[in-house]
Amino acid sequence: MKINKELMKGSTVILILTLLNRKDMYGYEMTKEMETHTDGVFTLKEGTLYPILHTLESEKYVEAYWDEKEGRKRKYYRITKSGKAELGLKKEEWQLFRSTVERVIGEGGV
Predict the structure, then answer these.
(1) SS3 readout for 42-93
(2) Where would I find the Transcription regulator PadR N-terminal domain in this sequence (predicted)?
């Protein structure tokens, strides 16, 4: 089943920050991790991922650096201290949103 793009749009920042909170990653690695952890339900295209990363970078939530591994130079991203704080706020916001939606449509609903 495909997820509506509008639903995904509201979740991409928390997903990217969560991935980067686990470890530093380059762009393609993030897209593959997202697909793996969601069994292919969530896919991030480069045209979606990089504008979000650039926005997070301008907001100082992530920072980029170049590194060379196995002879390949790649641009890696890492979460910053303020990015970790923002992730904490996003997780709280997500919990409130999720529990509120579940109260309306969940098992205890009408």
Answers:
(1) CCCCHHHHHHHHHHHHHCCCEEEEEEEECCEEEEEEEECHHHHHHHHHHHHH
(2) 16-87
